[in-house]
Amino acid sequence: MTLTDASVPALARHVRLRFDAARNCHVLLAPERVIMPDAIAVAILECCDGAATIGAIADALATRYAAPRDAVLTDCLDMLNDLAGKGMVTA
Amino acid sequence: MTKLEPPLAMLMELTHRCPLKCPYCSNPLALDRARDELDTATWKRVISEAASLGVLQVHFSGGEPMVRNDLPDLVRHARAEGLYTNLITSAVLLNASRMAVLAEAGLDHVQISFQGAEQKIADHVAGFRDAHAKKLAAVRRVREAGLALTLNAVMHRQNLRQLTEMIGLAVEVGAQRIEIAHVQYYGWALKNRAALIPTRAQLAEATAIVEAARTRLAGKLTIDYVVPDYYASRPKACMGGWARRFFNITPSGKMLPCHAAESLTHLIFERVTERGVADIWASSPAFEAYRGTAWMAPPCQGCARAEIDWGGCRCQALALAGDAAATDPACGLSPHHEAMVALAEAESAAGIEEFAYRMIS
What keyword terms does UniProt attach to this protein (chain A) (predicted)? Predict the structure, then answer.
């Protein structure tokens, strides 16, 4: 499975994203896995609500951070494809 | 000395009671009795203290954790503390109503052990009639409840021929993950090593099967693979380093850096009933004994891999090299390595099949 800008991503049901006060960062929790996503990844993951397409997420983030849309889309696709390969994101 | 980081995970051995008798059980040979188990209030306090310390994942284990009637209460409490909750179970007690209660309590993930891919070998290894059939029913309940599912395939000489079928079973039941773990030789497994340890050829074949399956099932099934390090050239980073990422609480409340650590009888492991979890983590002499690299002697001291494998396993060093501070004999640089390999080769070819089943003596 390869995600495209038309895919609608969501965190897999068994995956949780939350802020961890002890480490002062966000953590992504899955079976026997802990990932500490960076600020860009957190911004993307917080948009993955199972309704927005990756294209729409890139539009929103490009506007919010006044960043080039193509670069934002590439970041989204790279990160979400990586997590989809690990079974942590579904589409 | 680098700053002490908070632990990632806590393994809670709620009980040592278990209906199964697996001869490689990771519990110690001297099992805790029911009357010595921590009560519900103490376990809840431990969970809260662990969450405050920075623990992110809790594993409810045993023995068989489902023999404790307070398991749903503890799961609910852990979820309220923001923890990721994992149940490690034989699943023989996981009927429909108990599955529903645990799902409602907020359980995230269930890990079910399989002793084989079909009833005959599986029930023989578990020492429990109909264990395999009960597990097959339970995995379907986990999937129907919508929880994440891992199959724990515990592999050894007497069931390795079923490895391909075990992976097939994980796919068939819709597991997200399979943990293919060759038996690690501590506790009961050390006692039963001659009946369990694979030949070098069997191990090579198993590793090839795993690698092919990882390619074939990428994105569909996560495969974690733990090899028996008797045939390795470098040791595994046991527990990710002693007292570095993980701790374990025994049924009676001893806090350990690893579930096998009680075999290190020269260390005194403190109890969570006497001292707080954070204090034990930070400054218990048993936790500090092998933390970091300062305790190491050559060839570990100064080795480029010192902070990769952290010297390997302390329990294995004591068991096979006679010194808990020695380099793990799994390392090719250990003076005990050749003897370890010779032992594995001899025992795996000796034809010993009989198990000493786990039991409370």
Answer: PQQ biosynthesis
* Contact of B40 with B70, CB cutoff 8 Å: yes
In Å, how far are A30, B3, B268, B317 from B246, measured between CA atoms? 16, 16, 18, 20
Summarised one tens digit per residue, pLDDT across range B270-288 is: 999 999 999 999 999 999 9
Q: pLDDT tens digit string along B92-113? A: 999 999 999 999 999 999 999 9
Nearest residue to B248 via CA among B100, B94, B27, B41: B27
In residues, how long is chain A? 91
**Do A89 and A12 touch, CB atoms closer than 8 A?**
yes
Could you tell me how many CB contacts below 8 A there are between chain A and chain B? Answer: 55
Q: How far apart, in whole angstroms, are the C-alpha atoms of residue A6 and residue A73?
A: 11
Q: Which chain A residue's Cα is nearest to B222?
A: A86
Q: Note the pTM of the prediction, 2 decimals.
A: 0.94
Average pLDDT by consecutive 10-residue portion of chain B (361 residues)? 86 97 94 96 98 98 97 98 98 97 97 96 95 96 94 96 97 95 93 96 96 92 90 92 97 96 96 98 97 95 96 95 96 96 95 92 67
**Angstrom distance (rounded) from CA B39 to CA B14:** 9
Among B341, B321, B328, B340, CA closest to B200: B341
Using CA atoms, how far apart are residues B336 and A44, in angstroms rounded to an integer?
51
**Pairwise CA distance, residues B203 & B215, whole Å:** 19
- Which residue among A13, A27, A86 places its CB closest to the CB of B56? A27
Chain-centroid distance of CA B287 in Å reads: 19
Local structure of B232: helix, strand or coil: coil
What kind and span of H or E run contains A25?
strand A25-30
Nearest one of B307, B156, B332 to B235, comparing CA atoms: B332
A27/B222 touch (CB, cutoff 8 Å), yes or no: no
Cis peptide bond prior to B312, omega within 30° of 0: no
**Of B70, B74, B87, B89, which is closest to residue B19 (Cα–Cα)?**
B89
Determine if residue B18 is labeled as part of a ligand binding site. Answer: yes
Q: Tell me which residues of chain A have a pLDDT lower than 50.
A: none
* CA neighbor of B136 nearest in space, from B115, B157, B107: B115
Judged by a CB distance cut-off of 8 A, whether residue B81 touches chain A is: no
Q: Does A14 touch chain B (CB under 8 A)?
A: yes
Measured in whole angstroms, the distance separating CA B20 from the mean position of its chain's CA atoms is: 16
Residue showing tokens 């994942």: B57
Judge whether B202 and B210 are in contact, CB under 8 Å: no
Q: How many whole angstroms separate alpha carbon A56 and alpha carbon A64?
A: 12
